[in-house]
Amino acid sequence: MDTFPIITTKRLKLRKLSERDVEKYYDVMSREEVMQYYGMNRLETLEEAKQIISSFQKAYEMERGLRWGIFLKDTEQFIGTIGLNHLNKAAKRTEIGYELHPDHWKQGFMTEAVEAILSYIFVELKLFRIGAITFPANESSNRLLRRLGFQREGLLRGYLFQNGKSHDAFVYALLKSDWDALNEEHEVDERLSYTDHLTEIIKKAEREGQFDDLPGKGKPLHIGNSYGNSYESQMYKTMKDNHVLPRWVELGKEIDQLKEALQQTTGKEKQRKIKEINKKIKTYNYACPPTLQRNKVTE
Questions:
Q1: If you write DSSP's letter for every residue of 52-75 in order, what string do you get?
Q2: Regarding beta strands 93-100 and 78-88, do their DSSP bridges make them parallel or antiparallel, or are they unpaired?
Q3: How far apart are CA 49 and CA 26, in angstroms?
Q4: Which pick of 42, 76, 148, 256 has the fewest CB atoms within 10 Å?
Q5: Distance CA 126, CA 176 (A)
Q6: Mean per-residue pLDDT for 244-256?
Q7: 54-112 residue pLDDT tens
Q8: 22-29 helix and 46-61 helix, angle to the nearest 10 degrees
Q9: What order do you get walking across the sheet with 78-88 strand by strand?
Q10: Which helix (H) or strand (E) holds 203?
C-alpha cells in the first residue's frame, strides 16, 4: 500500500487523517454519546486525539490497519472515521470499526461508508473475512451489520474494558463468499428495475385498475369490441380467454401467510422462516409488476 487509498461514494469522501483534523476528531471522540459503546473512554485532551491520529499512520505504515476520515463530499465537513483493525493480509482477515458525529446519525452515512469499505476490502485487498466487535446493547450498530450481511458468531465474555468495567461483546463476521452472494442478489434487484414495452403496458394497466378485473377476482374484463394492433388489448384478451391467474398472486398470499406465522417464532426457526420468505419474495419479484415488488424481510 504505497499510497493511502482515497474512496468516494455518492455523498462521502474517505481520506487519510492528518494533524489538521485533530480538533475535529477530538470533537467527535470526546462526546459521551459517541463513546458509550466504543470500547475505550472518551478523549479528554487534544493531545490524546493527536496521538491516536499518529497511531493510525504508524499502523498504516506497518500494514496492520487503515483509518479513513469520513468527509461530506460537497462541503469537506468531517463527520467521523471508519477503519480496519488487526489487518492481517497474509491470513486475509481484518476487523472494522467506525464512529459518527451525532448530528449525522440516522441519515445512512455510515451504511454508505461501510459498503464502500467492504468493496475495497474484498476487491482491492482481496481479503476473505472481515469481523466486527460490538456491545450487545449497541443495537444501531448491530442492525447495520446484520443489514449488510454480517452474521453474529458468538458472545465474548468480558472482552471490552471501558470506564473501569469489563463488558461482554458480540462478534460478527462477513466472508467474501457471503458478500459475493449478497451482491448477486443486488444485481438481480437492479435488473428487476429494467423497463421495456411490456413493463410499461403492465404499469399502465395497474394504474387503470385492470388488475382488479383479473379472472379469479370476481369481475369480468372490459376489453371493448375492437382490438386492432393494440398489444395491451391483446394481452388482456389472451388472459381472459385462458382464465389465467398469475403465479405472483398466489405467491403473494403465501408470503403474507408466512409473515403472519413469523411473528410467533424465535431463534433458529425464525431465521429459517425468514430465508424461506425471502426465497419466495425473490421468485415473486421476478413475476409481478415492477410497482408491486416487495422488499426482503430482515430480523
A1: HHHHHHHHHHTTS-EEEEEEETTT
A2: antiparallel
A3: 5
A4: 76
A5: 9
A6: 77
A7: 999 999 999 999 999 999 999 999 999 999 999 999 999 999 999 999 999 999 999 99
A8: 110
A9: 7-8, 12-16, 66-72, 78-88, 93-100, 129-134, 165-175, 151-162
A10: helix 197-207
Contact 40, 53 (CB under 8 A): no
Cα–Cα distance measured from residue 84 to residue 205, given in angstroms and rounded to the nearest whole number: 51
The contacts of residue 256 (CB under 8 Å, 6+ apart) are none
Q: pTM of the predicted model, to two decimals? A: 0.62
**CA-closest candidate to residue 122, choices 151, 145, 93, 143:** 93
pLDDT the model gives residue 261: 86
Residues 34/99, Cβ–Cβ less than 8 Å = yes
Amino acid symbol at 186? H
* Vertex 24: Cα angle to 22 and 28 (nearest 5): 110
Joined together, the cell numbers standing for residue 90 give 497474509
In 3D, which of 169, 172, 173, 137 has the Cα closest to residue 156?
Answer: 169
Confidence category of residue 185, pLDDT binned at 50, 70, 90: low
Helix (H, G, I), strand (E, B) or coil at 150: coil
Q: Which residue from 19, 13, 25 is spatially nearest to 112, judged by alpha carbons?
A: 13
